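Annex B. Sample input.
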Amino acid sequence: MMEDAKYLDLVAKYLSGNISTEDRAELLHWADAEEANRQFFDEMIQLWSMSAEAEEPFEADVELAWSSLENKLPFEEDPLRIEDVPPKLIQLKKKRWDWRIAAAIAVLLIGGWWLIPNSLEPSEEVLAAQLQDEPLVLPDGSKVWLNEDSRVVYRPSFEKRNIQLEGEAFFEIARDEKRPFIVEAGSARTTVLGTSFNLRAYPDENRVELVVESGKVKFENLKQREKEAVATLEKGQAAFVKKDTDEIVLDSSISENTTAWMRDTLVFNQASLDKVIGDIQRYFRIAIQVEDEGAYNCNFNSTFPQPELGNVFDEMEAVLEGIEIRQEGERYILQGACSPK
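Annex B, continued. Sample output.
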């Protein structure tokens, strides 16, 4: 709701003509992301124009603004292009009316808009717990597997294949050349036509991560406008957006355990201990502190179907001589070392 209030404030700045270039670009990106946003934006412009009839009229060149935005977008294509939709006008009994009434209506709309769901089509929210390990089948035939503590939100009609993710999900996208599939997660946007990929965006983690299993995916940072804030990834490639710097980083160290949560199996083939620790932290969402750098001399080889943390640690201590793991509060401490290779 606070995010909606932010854009309502930007709308007010735009209408008053007191908006910076950066805020204006952000507002137009927001309006372009959802048809409901664009329609609301157009309605506010219309109401503002009518409310100003008694004074100097406000003239917002909407088409020029949209044209200018399109020319600046760093995309090869514009997947979220919203068709020109005539604004929904309030039918009036008089051609002219008191500008103070129009202003009051605008204030009511702006003041209460984000408290009321879109009356035309409410969003559908699906939680991981509701799926019971089954995929969510979207109206276009695409499938989504949700990890624990994850959820997605989308419009039931799915006329525009837009979806929002919080947490982690594996997507298997039905191909549609005319309608790109768009996932927004944190500050990142992922755009595809037909492919499969894993996307991780937990609010308590410091990055949004994408791993492509098949096809081609466009990955971009919504907080940046520069061309370098967009990356195109193909099968076997990965990237992440760092929340602290908002930069996109290509990741060449892809783990075979990226989708272990979906397969419910952890696999280590003579893996270095730093990789083992990283995969365990990711799978169980825990923190492990290594006390002795010599531990990184260890290699670990084992497979855990339906892994449980206690069993994984027991196996590591049994196989890696000298390694011990203990729990301190919410952290796990790994001590001991292996001989240099």
